[in-house]
Amino acid sequence: MTLMNISSIIITIIGVFASVFTIFMNIFLLKRHSKNRDDMVIFYCRFAIDVFIGIAEIIYLTFIIFYAVFNDFFVNHRTFLVFFGLLVSALGSVRSIVTLAISIERFLAVYFPIFYHNNQNYFSPIIIGISAIGFGFVEPIVLFGICSYDFDVPQQCVAFLCAINQCFFTFMRTHKSVNRLAIIDAAIVFLFDFLPNITRGQVSKNEFFSFQVGHSMFSCSFMLSFQNIGPYGAVSKCVGCAMEAYLVFKTLARKDSAVESKIKMSGEDNRPYGSQ
Which domain of life is it from (predicted)? Predict the structure, then answer.
């Protein structure tokens, strides 16, 4: 085993641990906060999607590790690179649409509240969910339907992009450019929402969302893996999602602490005069 292969395996293991961390953090966020705010259902959908993506990433990266270490045994099963990689890619597409919907919704709610109030029904979680799932299903339909993929995976291939044919690779480049719209939109909201909160030095109403879109812009910029060395891009995305989950946790914990302090102060102010 070459030094390059060893370094690739180590980095892939880091991606597995990052995915495990992401799963537990998002499950914790779902259990702790899912009943607090009905107007943040889409955010909770994002948490759930990140859990599924984390599970898919663990399966995908773990298979790559075993494939690299026990190549002689797994070489006849390398088509699983396609199944697992396609699952991760499709879930990433679903996530990008949900992120885009969150970005647009929060942007309109903050800067165009009247327009948002009159058109709020268009941001129904059901509509967004159906659209996101439909967007994710496009990839397997194109791969097996339009591009007629026949599972011709090169023996030295250890990542999804080198396992697909040229037809689907061309589609992926175009398809992922659509995903970048979510990143651009998130960047706009990040600049106009998060940075002013930094200068004011306070936890504003939209700070939670700012962390979401700001780091989504960072993590989604590493969507594509390169071909024959290892899924470095996928690992970078796993680490980015783990960092994002931690930032969201810290933000919500800080907001919960602020709310509890206000409730405590309000209770003390309402005590009868002279009581201890």
Answer: Eukaryota
